[in-house]
Amino acid sequence: MAAMRIPALLVAFACALAGAAPASPPAAAPRHADPAKVFRYAFEVAETSLDPHRISDLYSNILNAAIFDPPLRYDYLARPAKLVPNTLVAMPEITEGGKVITMRIRPGIFFSDDPAFGGKKRELVAADYAYSIRRVLDPRNASPLLSELEGILAGSEAALAKARKANRLDYDEPIEGLKVLDRYTLQLRLTQPFYVFLYNLADCRVMCAVAREVVEAYPDDVGGHPVGTGAFRLAFWKRTSKLVFEANPNFREEFFDGTPQPGDEEAAAILAKYQGRRLPMVGRVEVYIIDEQQPRWLAFLNAEHDLIFRVGEEFANVAMPNNAIAPNLAKRGIRMGQIPGMDITYNYFNMDDATVGGYTPDKVALRRAISLAYNTRDEISIIRKNQSVPASTPYGPGTAGYDPKFRTAMAEYSPAKAKALLDLYGYLDRDGDGYREMPDGSPLVIKANSTPNARDNQLDELWKRSMDAIGVRYTVRKAKWPDLLKESYAGKLMFWQLGGSASAPDAETWLTSLYGPNTGLKGNQARFRLPAYDRLYERARVMPDSPERTHLYQEMARLVAAYAPWKVNTHRILTDMWYPWVHAYRRPLVQSQNFWRFIDIDPALSPAMRR
Q: Is the separation of the CB atoms in 426 and 478 below 8 Å?
């Protein structure tokens, strides 16, 4: 899997541097979005909120990106990833060596109707984006993406210091790096030329526009009353069970377009068929939360759902033997798409935990021994049915900075080395019960956490078997994903397995999660604080994609391998399947991007196929 590069974006960037609660019901459905076209599919993880500035997880981000609009988005058809204007008239103007970003919003974009607007149409303006940035800075929102602005947006540190002292942000007080130049023009000033900052303009969690009137109308439940300018609006919500979206009657005139890479025949065919079509094309989207793989797969097989977004690994042998769609599915006209995910699965150790945390040789030895003993090969072959590959870096393939030839020891499996490390540093079985104790004789227990689904149960069993093999006692506590996430941010979990999907096509999207100042709510759930790592990260984040920056990324990876705050496991292969009545579907490379506005449903074929 070759590393993804983004030459078109970098060229454009270089040229610029050189100067260059449910929505209100009364409105009628838009004519271009056919209410007979209904798209149904399922998520395997429940949503956490429909407030874009208070979430971090992939699935909530997908939902929010349907309702709200960031200034930029990724070209739906382009491979590799390419940023294009979303609500802007053109790509941002970047001046002063990359420190100043000026955006001009397209006039005539309106929020979906809501009582907060007093019965008037509410236009999107530059002040809405400025207000939304302030929401990320507001300590009351505890935004997980605060690290993308703090110390990066000029004046942010001073504003945050004052806000933290008062436990509230003054939304009307000027911030040096945030200027509304006129009704449609917003200017951001950065403290340094952060070359990856441009990706934040396509990330709903940082830049999606929320109207101040809506927040002030529903101050205690902003996430329960999502009102945006996106292609869809919320029509029904049974939390952690089902969400229904309908086409936003106020959605702007937007038409299908894209720039397929030469030789990409699938993308070229989609463009030839749909170029110029008004978006969105479907009138209704139903999203079901089904955390178990078997009922989600059966719902798809029964044509209750139109697409299965990532076929569960346990069905790989029957759905796609040898990575080809099974003949019985192909006979039904079902199509398959498969891409190497820009993602990583890993376990983190809480570096503040009394048992597994710390930077002394004995604590490092414990984490490295645990990592060496875990049988990732069995995870890949047995649990994931070979739908993933081993990971040896804390960032995934397909991103700028990833080199498939670069390896670290993080992928090594050696129970013998693990036992030797534990013996050397005094983790011994003193009472003969088959389990080791801490060097001081106190109990050694790894307290893991996971969600109550079949796949996590299998992973729990593999971890338990791997730890038993080296005499380390391993226990598992079960809880729901949103609850575990809250506890994780608060530093209450010792050990947890996560999957991380790229929020931008750059390795920095993961490396920021190990940066010391980002500890806790800002994404560093391992609470890893290593000055040597932080210095490398600070150097790299002000550099453009280059061999020099890739070298810094690799040095950071070596430090992660040495101190082992993460046990990196796999990079997943993502397989989707959909029925023949679903047209123009392409899984976004950046998975948090919402694709609903670009797909079409054949309502004549769909009911016949459902019988």
A: no
Secondary structure of residue 143 in the 3-state scheme: coil
E-strand spans in 455-601?
A: 473-478, 495-501, 566-578, 582-583, 600-601
d(CA 209, CA 438): 51
| Average pLDDT, integer, range 66-92 | 97
Assign residue 491 a region (left: φ > 0; alpha: ψ between -120 and 50; beta: otherwise).
left
Q: What confidence tier does 14 reach under pLDDT thresholds 50, 70, 90? A: very low
In which region does residue 322 sit, left (phi positive, over 0), alpha (psi from -120 to 50) or beta (all else)?
A: left
The span from the CA of 548 to the CA of 231, in Å, is 41
The residue whose two tokens read 């609660």 is 21
Report long-range pairs for 555-561 (Cβ below 8 Å, ≥24 apart).
556/394, 556/511, 556/514, 557/393, 557/394, 557/395, 557/406, 557/408, 557/410, 558/408, 559/530, 559/532, 559/533, 560/394, 560/408, 560/410, 560/514, 560/533, 561/408, 561/409, 561/410
Which pTM does this prediction carry? 0.86
How far is residue 174's CA from residue 171's CA, in Å, rounded to a whole number? 8
β-bridge mates for residue 231, sequence order? none
Q: Whose CA is closest to 314, among 340, 343, 328, 293? A: 293
Which residue shows structure tokens 């942000």?
Answer: 169
Contact 464, 476 (CB under 8 A): yes
* pLDDT tens, position by position, 276-319: 999 999 999 999 999 899 999 999 999 999 999 999 988 999 99
Residue 230, pLDDT above cutoff 50: yes
The residue ranges of DSSP E strands in 429-526, in sequence order, are: 445-450, 473-478, 495-501
